[in-house]
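>> Question from a student workshop board

For tomorrow's exercise we were told to take the sequence and the ligand below, predict the bound structure, and bring the output to class. My setup keeps failing. Could a helper post the expected result so I can at least see what it should look like? The ligand is NAP.
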Amino acid sequence: MKIGIIGGTGGMGEGFALRWCTNHEIIIGSRDKAKAQEAAERYHGIAKEVYKKIKGNITGEDNSTLAKNSDILLLSIPYETINDTCSKIADDVRESCIVVSPIVPMTRVPEKGWIYLPFENGTKTAAELVAANFRPGTKVVSAFHTISEVKLRDIKYDIDGDTYVCSNDLDSVKIINQLIYELSLRPIYLGQLSLTYQAEVMTPMILNAARRNRLKQPGLKLTN
Ligand SMILES: NC(=O)c1ccc[n+]([C@@H]2O[C@H](COP(=O)([O-])OP(=O)(O)OC[C@H]3O[C@@H](n4cnc5c(N)ncnc54)[C@H](OP(=O)(O)O)[C@@H]3O)[C@@H](O)[C@H]2O)c1
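>> Workshop helper replied:
Here is what the output should look like for this input. Compare the format with yours to find the bug.
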């Protein structure tokens, strides 16, 4: 599968690329093609040191070229950049492409802690803002919000935890669930994209818990 990572030069993008490259063709995306290619080369070097066999590969492209060629398009970009980034690539994305949002709209307020912006400002959830930027009917999946970048990038580390998934398209959920299992995580489907706030809000919750209770990179796992 061709997985394009818009903003793949950032920390989350690196982690996804390093872990999925064992089985998939990863395209790192950036506003600057040379930066994407440099990152792709670096990630490939790290992966080669750790894995005995890499069935996929990692290459770099500008965001628009990547969007035209991806089966899965992961938007690994800050919340504030959604409209600007998506409006530039929306026409390039294939009809069959699954767009994935791990984006968390949050900020840290002095004395208060981490807050979830849509609750504070009445702004849209990240995944719904993403969906609003693409053609109606585009398959959008919301996932990966509570996965720590530090753990994701450390490919010798077995992450082990849950990630919450929302989408209106169950066939897309099946495909993304498989990619989640490949990260050694368990997908937990919450429901339609309108419930994405329940997944996105978990991240500021975890960060406040970590800060106030001296927990190191905590994750989430539901018990039976
Ligand atoms: N960090 C975590 O632990 C974590 C955990 C869960 C979810 N998330 C979510 O995952 C997403 C990515 O996180 P991250 O920490 O990897 O993000 P990041 O490092 O802040 O940014 C990722 C990439 O986004 C691009 N970017 C930055 N500013 C931009 C702008 N103004 N316009 C367009 N593109 C811009 C940059 O790529 P180029 O300069 O190469 O274009 C950058 O490398 C975020 O939405 C975050 O909320 C993060």
